[in-house]
Amino acid sequence: MKFSANLGFLWSDRPYLDRIHAAHKAGFDAVELHWPYDTDAAEIRAALDATGLPCLGLNTDRGDTDRGENGLSALPGREEDARAAIDQALYYAARIGARNVHVMAGFAEGPDAHETFVANLGYACSKAGETGLLIEPLNRYDAPGYFLNTATQGKAVIDAVARPNLKLMFDCYHIQLMQGDLTHRLTDLLPLIGHIQIAAVPDRGAPDHGEIHYPHIFAHLDALGWQTPLGAEYKDPRPTDDTLGWLAAARA
Ligand SMILES: O=C(O)C(=O)[C@@H](O)CO
Ligand SMILES: [Mg+2]
Questions:
Q1: Of 43, 79, 211, 233, which residue is the catalytic one?
Q2: Which of 42, 51, 56, 62 has its CA 20 to 30 A from that of 139?
Q3: Ligand 1 near 29 CB (within 6 A)
């Protein structure tokens, strides 16, 4: 199994460029970013080229975080802002060679939000070119009021958009908190999944403790033929270099 370092969380005590080199030194196979927009894309690209690490993805801008926004694409009436965020993410992704853009839904509910999300995702699919698009259900404990909460709802949105370049970001941490049954769900949804992330449940630490026995998940994904690096997206109180025993164990 291969692994991607999510540099939104791992080594978050240092600048993005240093995080890429830290991930390389630690033996990760890829990296992924959250919101790298304050860092010059050419510099990120140079660090990726220097390390040989592919970048698996980044997120659309959240909007006005001072007002608590966490994505714009499911917000009725905010289509112009949502599409500007999609354009910005696709442009940045193309410059650094990122494989995917995660289009963030935001805090919204109801049929109008669903329709808005579907329309904005349709726009993103038309503009994405070679870049893949992802949507990610977030759990209700960390993100109460977020539009997209379950893999089941994610599938309904993907079915409604009906475009081959839109897939599900299956974050085992969020799905375990909302629905569980990870083994069957990964099997059933595999054709729709574009990226998989991991963290311990419920504390979102390194994937070496808690409710999810990750050696089983890794073996299961291996048996299913999954090859894309799994995104290590965890927040652990220890310095990142001290949390990587799970990575060594998975490699053994
Ligand atoms: O929180 C997560 O999980 C993510 O993957 C973020 O990129 C989106 O909030
Ligand atoms: Mg995630």
A1: 233
A2: 56
A3: no
Of the residues 4, 31, 58, 102, which should be mutated to test ligand 1's pocket, given the most ligand atoms within 8 Å of the CB? 102
The reply to whether ligand 1 has any atom less than 6 angstroms from the CB of 4 is: no
pTM: 0.97
ipTM confidence score: 0.95
- Per-residue pLDDT tens for 179-233? 999 999 999 999 999 999 999 999 999 999 999 999 999 999 999 999 999 999 9
Active site residue 233: yes
CA atoms within 13 A on the CB side of 241: 8
Contacts of 145 (CB under 8 A, 6+ apart): 107, 108, 109
Question: What ranges do the domains of the chain cover?
Answer: 3-251
Contact 134, 163 (CB under 8 A): no
Q: Is residue 136 predicted with pLDDT exceeding 90?
A: yes
